[in-house]
Amino acid sequence: MSHAPVRNVAHARRRARKSAVQALYQWLMAGQSPSEIDVQFRDSQDMSRTDVAYFHELLHRIPERIEALEESLDPLLDRPWPELDPVERAILYIGAYELAHRPDIPFKVVIDEAVGLARTFGAQESHRYVNGVLDQAARRLRPVETGRRS
Known about the structure:
mainly alpha; N-utilizing Substance Protein B Homolog, Chain A; 73% helix
């Protein structure tokens, strides 16, 4: 039995997250609507190996739930949201969304993917910050899965 399709799904999902970080950054910085950004990305980016449905989900659902996502992470941050780097914000939003709304994705995968995004797009030490915040968030949002309580 081949495991290649599962791997391709994982890669397509990873590409969706990478595009979502860029799109959410654009949303945060330029104030464009998610729908405008969605069309722009589909027109200008090679999305052929990307899980486009997942990209769409992240780009549209995160802004719809932004207040709840921020509230879930507020106690875990060392500074107010506006003082966070916009790239870190976008990555934390994706991680918080996946922890809260995608129980089908194991918490370790959520954290690993977010740390990878921070290594790719963030400042030099942002991956450590993202890891620390999302590890604490996983304990709060998925105590049974993590086997820990905050």
